[in-house]
Specification:
The protein is mainly beta and about 140 residues long. Helix content is about 0%, strand content about 20%.
Length: about 140
């Protein structure tokens, strides 16, 4: 077997897939990858790739919102560029403020395809999804 074997479909809209849901719409978006249509009996992977909240300020609080050390504009004890003694470096921001559902995933079996609507058998309540997957446009906040 060689070449691209998997196909990726983006959800049809900015709607949320809720836990317990047994069908969803792939819409008319073109598949990415192998381009193979979804068929009954296929094992599919549903995943939340993005969605964590982060602090977007251009400070040491970037990411997790916890500010780190930021060097002052004047330095005590002769530290600084003119003394040849470098000041301590700033602490870089990192992380996130809320991971939300980012990183969640699950497998399901396709039990039906009608147009762009896919019906699944999952591991959640009533054979639906276990997790909730949020599809929303990105924001600066």
């Amino acid at each position: 077997m060689g070449g691209i074997v998997n196909t990726y479909y983006q959800p049809a809209s900015t709607s949320t897939l809720n836990a317990g849901q047994t069908s969803f719409n792939l819409g008319t978006l073109s598949p990415i990858g192998a381009g193979t249509p979804v068929s009954v009996g296929d094992l599919i992977l549903i995943m939340q790739m993005q969605g964590a909240d982060a602090n977007y300020t251009n400070t040491s609080a970037y990411g997790n919102g916890v500010g780190g050390y930021e060097p002052p504009t004047t330095y005590p004890n002769g530290m600084g560029a003119s003394s040849g003694i470098p000041p301590p470096p700033p602490t870089a921001g990192s992380g996130y403020t809320n991971i939300n559902n980012t990183g969640l995933y699950e497998y399901a079996i396709v039990t039906g395809v009608s147009g762009s609507t896919v019906t699944i058998q999952g591991g959640g309540a009533g054979g639906g999804l276990i997790n909730t997957y949020i599809n929303a446009p990105a924001t600066a906040t």
